[in-house]
Design goal:
This protein has one domain: Alpha-D-Glucose-1,6-Bisphosphate, Chain A, domain 4. About 25% of the residues lie in helices and about 40% in strands. The chain contains four helices and twelve strands; from the N terminus they run H-E-E-E-H-H-E-E-E-E-E-E-E-E-E-H.
């Protein structure tokens, strides 16, 4: 088990990685799924043998409120159907924390429940916010869970120029679920999970 990292250099590196992903040209992405709420693309990850997913959609709310629902905190468990528990293990200054969370089984439990320990960082980006994270090898694995690993992930949320009450939400997700899983099942689950994330978030923001 690794000790907890120094938050400042990890936060800076994480932000730079996400900004680099945000600059990847459209031609490098392949469409994975499209719904009324979001479009999901993917490309091979540079971090592991799976995919880096990009999701994008417009959300009817102001940037701060959208990000408050996504980042670690009291809102997330209320609306995210995939997340079954969340505990903040350590809080640093500068909007950094370490959290432990668990996710429900997926695809008729072909994908068993997973647990993650993530470093999370929220910072300003252009006129909006970026909330990003990366998994840490920290703490004991809980019984009946497989420990997954999030390579650099994050959500950019910026107000729409013509409609400041709406936000453009763009996510970059690359999750290594680990365990004995067919890659096709993982790919199906990821695209659907990201599309559902937008529809669940929109419902939560309306309440």
């Amino acid at each position: 088990m690794d000790p907890l990292p120094n938050p400042a250099p990890l936060a800076a590196k994480l932000r730079n990685t996400l900004v680099r992903y945000h600059g990847i040209g459209d031609g490098e992405w392949r469409l994975a799924k499209k719904t009324k709420d979001a479009t999901v693309w993917r490309k091979p990850s540079e971090e592991f043998s799976g995919y880096l997913y990009k999701a994008q959609g417009v959300v009817e709310d102001v940037t701060n409120r959208v990000v408050d629902h996504i980042r670690p905190g009291p809102y997330r468990l209320d609306w995210d159907s995939l997340m079954t528990s969340m505990d903040i293990l350590e809080t640093f200054e500068e909007n950094c924390c370490v959290m432990h969370y668990t996710t429900a089984g997926q695809l008729w439990n072909i994908i068993a429940p997973r647990e993650f320990v993530d470093f999370s960082y929220t910072t300003s980006y252009e006129d909006g916010l970026l909330t990003c994270g990366i998994s840490l090898d920290y703490g004991e694995v809980r019984p009946n869970f497989v420990r997954g690993f999030n390579h650099p992930c994050g959500w950019f949320c910026v107000p729409l120029k013509d409609s400041p009450g709406h936000s453009l939400l763009t996510g970059y997700i690359q999750t290594e679920l680990r365990g004995m899983l067919p890659q096709s099942a993982v790919d199906t689950a990821m695209s659907s999970t990201l599309a559902n994330f937008y529809s669940d978030l929109k419902k939560a923001l309306k309440t």
